[in-house]
Amino acid sequence: MRNGMGSWPFVGGFIAFMVVWALINTLVLASRAWDPYPYILLNLFLSMLAGLQGAILLIAAKRQDGIAAVMARHDYDTNVQSKEEIELLMDINRQQLAILRELQKRSGGPTEAP
User: What is the pTM of this model?
Assistant: First the structure.
């Protein structure tokens, strides 16, 4: 519903509806208009629509906040897991460098490992 009310087709249709309402009540049915100028009934409908749209926007924002919180938690968990995996790989790399140094010492090769 939020996506429908926040779209150009809705805006265009809404403007067209108001123009048709005004034309019918001003020109066509001037003698039998159900909502003569200043269109009090139309104003009532517009006020109700504004109240409904406000509630829909708040509900949508609340839902979006919930989605953002879930995504942030997922990102945090992924970062923690990645950090642990990187630390494990660094430990393995350190062990391999120590083994290489030891092998170089035993074989009489260069004493400095990268």
Answer: 0.51
Is the Cα dihedral 28, 29, 30, 36 positive or negative? negative
The C-alpha atoms of residue 35 and residue 114 are separated, in whole angstroms, by: 87
- How many CB atoms lie under 10 A from the CB of residue 25? 19
Report how far residue 112's alpha carbon sits from residue 61's, in angstroms, rounded to the nearest whole number.
Answer: 60
> Residue for token digits 């926007």?
57
Burial of 53 (0-12, 13-18, 19+ CB in 10 A): middle
Digit-coded pLDDT (tens) for 88-111: 999 999 999 999 999 999 987 665
> Is 23 strand, coil or helix?
helix
Distance from C-alpha of 89 to C-alpha of 97, rounded to nearest angstrom: 12
Q: How far apart are CA 56 and CA 51, in angstroms?
A: 9
Cis peptide leading into residue 38 (ω within 30°): yes
CB 35 within 8 A of CB 18: no
